[in-house]
Amino acid sequence: MAKALELPAPAGSAPVREGSLRVLLTLGLLTLLSAAIGGGFGLVMVSGIEKRVEEKYKALPEKTEVASPYAGNIGIKKLAPVVTNLAASNEDWVRVEASIIYKLNEEQSPDVMAGEIRQDVMAYLRTLSLAQIQGPSGLLHLREDLNERVKLRSKGVVQELVLETLIVQ
Protein backbone atom coordinates (compact mmCIF):
# COMPACT_ATOMS: atom_id res chain seq x y z
CA MET A 1 0.00 0.00 0.00
CA ALA A 2 1.05 3.37 -0.68
CA LYS A 3 1.71 5.73 2.09
CA ALA A 4 0.51 9.30 1.81
CA LEU A 5 3.22 11.74 1.75
CA GLU A 6 3.15 14.03 4.68
CA LEU A 7 4.95 17.26 4.39
CA PRO A 8 6.77 18.38 7.44
CA ALA A 9 5.30 21.46 9.19
CA PRO A 10 7.22 24.62 8.60
CA ALA A 11 9.65 25.26 11.33
CA GLY A 12 8.30 27.56 14.11
CA SER A 13 4.65 27.73 12.93
CA ALA A 14 3.09 26.43 16.14
CA PRO A 15 5.06 28.76 18.41
CA VAL A 16 4.22 31.73 16.14
CA ARG A 17 0.50 31.04 16.50
CA GLU A 18 0.77 30.73 20.25
CA GLY A 19 2.85 33.93 20.46
CA SER A 20 0.44 35.94 18.31
CA LEU A 21 -2.48 34.66 20.36
CA ARG A 22 -0.76 35.81 23.56
CA VAL A 23 -0.08 39.25 22.05
CA LEU A 24 -3.74 39.63 21.01
CA LEU A 25 -4.98 38.56 24.44
CA THR A 26 -2.56 40.96 26.12
CA LEU A 27 -3.69 43.86 23.89
CA GLY A 28 -7.35 43.02 24.54
CA LEU A 29 -6.75 42.88 28.28
CA LEU A 30 -4.88 46.21 28.23
CA THR A 31 -7.68 47.80 26.18
CA LEU A 32 -10.33 46.67 28.65
CA LEU A 33 -8.19 47.82 31.57
CA SER A 34 -7.62 51.29 30.05
CA ALA A 35 -11.33 51.66 29.24
CA ALA A 36 -12.24 50.78 32.84
CA ILE A 37 -9.67 53.21 34.27
CA GLY A 38 -10.80 56.02 31.90
CA GLY A 39 -14.46 55.45 32.71
CA GLY A 40 -13.75 55.45 36.44
CA PHE A 41 -11.73 58.67 36.16
CA GLY A 42 -14.54 60.28 34.16
CA LEU A 43 -17.13 59.35 36.78
CA VAL A 44 -14.95 60.76 39.57
CA MET A 45 -14.50 64.02 37.64
CA VAL A 46 -18.22 64.38 36.87
CA SER A 47 -19.24 63.79 40.48
CA GLY A 48 -16.68 66.35 41.68
CA ILE A 49 -17.94 68.95 39.19
CA GLU A 50 -21.57 68.28 40.18
CA LYS A 51 -20.70 68.84 43.85
CA ARG A 52 -18.98 72.15 43.06
CA VAL A 53 -21.90 73.37 40.95
CA GLU A 54 -24.39 72.46 43.67
CA GLU A 55 -22.31 74.27 46.31
CA LYS A 56 -22.05 77.34 44.08
CA TYR A 57 -25.80 77.52 43.46
CA LYS A 58 -26.57 77.00 47.13
CA ALA A 59 -24.24 79.88 48.01
CA LEU A 60 -25.98 82.29 45.59
CA PRO A 61 -28.65 84.50 47.12
CA GLU A 62 -32.21 84.24 45.91
CA LYS A 63 -33.19 86.53 43.05
CA THR A 64 -34.05 89.99 44.27
CA GLU A 65 -36.21 92.55 42.63
CA VAL A 66 -34.26 95.00 40.50
CA ALA A 67 -35.32 98.58 41.04
CA SER A 68 -36.50 100.23 37.85
CA PRO A 69 -34.69 103.41 36.87
CA TYR A 70 -38.10 104.75 35.86
CA ALA A 71 -39.73 104.39 39.24
CA GLY A 72 -41.10 107.42 40.96
CA ASN A 73 -42.67 110.58 39.65
CA ILE A 74 -41.93 110.50 35.91
CA GLY A 75 -43.77 111.32 32.72
CA ILE A 76 -43.42 110.61 29.02
CA LYS A 77 -43.87 113.10 26.20
CA LYS A 78 -43.91 112.24 22.52
CA LEU A 79 -41.90 114.61 20.36
CA ALA A 80 -43.11 115.79 16.98
CA PRO A 81 -41.39 113.91 14.14
CA VAL A 82 -38.06 115.36 13.02
CA VAL A 83 -37.47 115.33 9.25
CA THR A 84 -34.23 116.74 7.87
CA ASN A 85 -31.53 116.06 5.34
CA LEU A 86 -28.15 114.66 6.31
CA ALA A 87 -24.86 116.54 6.06
CA ALA A 88 -23.26 117.05 2.64
CA SER A 89 -26.23 115.52 0.81
CA ASN A 90 -29.48 116.84 -0.53
CA GLU A 91 -30.64 113.34 -1.45
CA ASP A 92 -30.32 111.58 1.95
CA TRP A 93 -33.19 112.37 4.30
CA VAL A 94 -33.86 111.10 7.79
CA ARG A 95 -37.07 110.97 9.86
CA VAL A 96 -36.89 110.38 13.60
CA GLU A 97 -39.81 109.83 15.95
CA ALA A 98 -38.92 109.86 19.62
CA SER A 99 -40.25 110.37 23.13
CA ILE A 100 -38.67 111.79 26.24
CA ILE A 101 -38.94 110.36 29.75
CA TYR A 102 -38.71 113.19 32.26
CA LYS A 103 -39.12 113.91 35.96
CA LEU A 104 -42.41 115.53 36.91
CA ASN A 105 -42.78 118.57 39.18
CA GLU A 106 -39.81 120.39 37.75
CA GLU A 107 -39.69 124.11 37.03
CA GLN A 108 -39.45 123.66 33.25
CA SER A 109 -42.59 122.95 31.21
CA PRO A 110 -42.50 119.62 29.33
CA ASP A 111 -43.87 121.26 26.17
CA VAL A 112 -41.13 123.89 26.11
CA MET A 113 -38.51 121.29 26.91
CA ALA A 114 -39.83 119.02 24.11
CA GLY A 115 -39.60 121.89 21.60
CA GLU A 116 -36.02 122.69 22.56
CA ILE A 117 -35.03 119.03 22.44
CA ARG A 118 -36.64 118.61 19.02
CA GLN A 119 -34.63 121.56 17.68
CA ASP A 120 -31.46 120.15 19.18
CA VAL A 121 -32.10 116.71 17.64
CA MET A 122 -32.68 118.30 14.24
CA ALA A 123 -29.49 120.34 14.46
CA TYR A 124 -27.49 117.26 15.44
CA LEU A 125 -28.95 115.10 12.66
CA ARG A 126 -27.94 117.71 10.07
CA THR A 127 -24.30 117.23 11.08
CA LEU A 128 -24.34 113.46 10.46
CA SER A 129 -23.50 111.58 7.29
CA LEU A 130 -25.22 108.43 6.13
CA ALA A 131 -22.17 106.30 6.98
CA GLN A 132 -22.30 107.43 10.63
CA ILE A 133 -25.77 106.00 11.26
CA GLN A 134 -25.54 102.79 9.26
CA GLY A 135 -25.71 99.43 11.00
CA PRO A 136 -26.29 98.48 14.61
CA SER A 137 -23.22 100.28 15.93
CA GLY A 138 -24.22 103.47 14.11
CA LEU A 139 -27.68 103.33 15.67
CA LEU A 140 -26.17 102.70 19.11
CA HIS A 141 -23.83 105.69 18.77
CA LEU A 142 -26.68 107.89 17.54
CA ARG A 143 -28.83 106.88 20.50
CA GLU A 144 -26.01 107.52 23.01
CA ASP A 145 -25.15 110.90 21.47
CA LEU A 146 -28.78 112.03 21.43
CA ASN A 147 -29.31 110.94 25.05
CA GLU A 148 -26.22 112.85 26.13
CA ARG A 149 -27.34 115.99 24.30
CA VAL A 150 -30.86 115.75 25.73
CA LYS A 151 -29.60 115.37 29.30
CA LEU A 152 -27.35 118.40 28.87
CA ARG A 153 -30.11 120.46 27.26
CA SER A 154 -32.62 119.66 30.02
CA LYS A 155 -30.11 119.95 32.87
CA GLY A 156 -30.87 116.40 34.05
CA VAL A 157 -34.65 116.68 33.99
CA VAL A 158 -34.95 114.26 31.06
CA GLN A 159 -33.85 110.76 31.98
CA GLU A 160 -33.84 109.30 28.48
CA LEU A 161 -34.71 109.94 24.86
CA VAL A 162 -36.44 106.87 23.43
CA LEU A 163 -36.05 106.43 19.67
CA GLU A 164 -39.28 105.01 18.31
CA THR A 165 -38.56 105.08 14.58
CA LEU A 166 -35.62 106.04 12.40
CA ILE A 167 -36.19 106.11 8.65
CA VAL A 168 -33.45 107.02 6.19
CA GLN A 169 -34.22 107.63 2.52
TrEMBL record:
UniProt keywords, alphabetically: Cell inner membrane, Cell membrane, Cell projection, Chemotaxis, Cilium, Flagellar rotation, Flagellum, Membrane, Transmembrane, Transmembrane helix
Pfam family, one: FliL
Subcellular location: Cell inner membrane; Cell membrane
Lipid bilayer topology: Single-pass membrane protein
Signal peptide: none
Database matches in InterPro entries: FliL
Record's keyword annotation contains Oxidoreductase: no
Membrane-spanning parts: 23-46
Similarity comment: family membership: Belongs to the FliL family.
Its biological purpose: Controls the rotational direction of flagella during chemotaxis.
Protein name listed in UniProt: Flagellar protein FliL
Source organism of the structure: Microvirga splendida
